[in-house]
Amino acid sequence: MREPFTGEESVTKDNTDKRLEALSQWAGRALRTGSVLRLWKLAGDAGFRRYFRAGTEPPLVAVDSPPERTNPARFVAIADYLRRYGIHTPMVVAADVERGFMLLEDLGDKQLLGQLNDDSVETLYAEMLSELLCLQQIPPAENLLPCYSRELLLMEMRILPEWLANRLLGYSLDTAEEQLVEQTFALLLDSACEQPKVLVHRDYHSRNLMVRDGERPGVLDFQDAVWGPVTYDLASLLRDCYIRWPRERVEHWALTYAATAEAAGVLEPVQPGTFLRWFDWMGLQRHIKVLGLFPRLYLRDGKPGYLPDLPLVIRYTLEVSDRYPELRPFADWFRERLLPLVERQEWYRDYRSAGNR
């Protein structure tokens, strides 16, 4: 997850911490400038990395990636692996993985989210779906791409009862509710596990994709890539937590992508109804995770900026759950037990109109 770009903030000695000062000094030495490199703070992601634009020509991005909380070596390895197959991740210009400092190619400020509108969406999504197909054609890398296992997918969904229900809303599930929730999770896991497996970016959405005129898209926030269900990144893009499109268009894009993936050998022939169920249920797994993740970012990490996006995630969650009889008990439970508590939150707006333009 990446925050919206909100411009640059000049970093001066008055507001610099020790790691930032060390990063500035290291970057200057890495580029052999003979001086400390001046940095401007950029919007970050939902993790513990910090990003700064360096005053160089061409511009570079300096990254503070604390090794005790992140994995800089994995970031560098996956960036290199994806670039070998033509994906435009930021080129790593210099890195000290032990200290957690990096200098990266600057891919600019044109997030996909800010470029999307009714006139541009067909062209831009065609580009992003073409790039996704390239990602999904990349072969597995031994010891680099862990399996997006049933256990990991389940752990992600269990963030909802802990961080949304319990910690944010103060609601404790009783035994019957826990059973209902776990039964729903099991259905979603079965659907995920029956899908073909490909490289999964895990956050392939409009805040992590950069529009680059005349060039292939820039791809950010790729360091958590895994080997997992074929519809995961497709649902992440087309059921984006930050922008919504009509169901008919989304399903058309999804089925068009399925046909393209079949032609490319990424996907064996599959019935449209089966593919759409995979797509819907995979998106629901992701949105259940996000319903817990955004509160955790606020309560644990001091990042409240994601909370206003929750109504759209709730809308997706209930729309899909309502559509399938097996999932409807979960939707009913959410509406009856959690939604009244959610509606009291300062950031809440009516989920039924969330994402409307």
Brief overview:
With 357 residues, the protein is an alpha+beta fold. It is built from twelve helices and ten strands.
Characterise the protein shown here.
Residues 42-262 form the Aminoglycoside phosphotransferase domain. It comes from Microbulbifer thermotolerans. InterPro entries: Aminoglycoside_PTrfase, Kinase-like_dom_sf. Keywords: ATP-binding, Nucleotide-binding, Transferase. One of its GO terms (molecular function) is ATP binding. The chain has 357 residues and is of the alpha+beta class. The chain folds into two domains: 9-105, Phosphorylase Kinase, domain 1, CATH 3.30.200.20; 121-353, Aminoglycoside 3'-phosphotransferase, Chain: A, domain 2 (Alpha-Beta Complex), CATH 3.90.1200.10. The protein is 46% helix and 11% strand. It contains twelve helices and ten strands. The protein has helices spanning 18-30, 72-84, 112-115, 121-136, 150-157, 159-168, 175-193, 232-238, 247-263, 272-299, 310-323, 328-342, and strands at residues 9-10, 39-42, 50-54, 60-64, 92-96, 101-105, 197-200, 209-210, 218-219, 226-229. The strands form three sheets. It has a six-stranded antiparallel sheet with strand order 1-2-3-4-6-5, sandwiched between helices. Helix 8 (232-238) packs across helix 10 (272-299) and helix 10 (272-299) runs antiparallel to helix 11. The protein starts with 8 loop residues before the first strand and ends in a 15-residue tail after the last helix. The model is unreliable at 1-16 (pLDDT under 50).
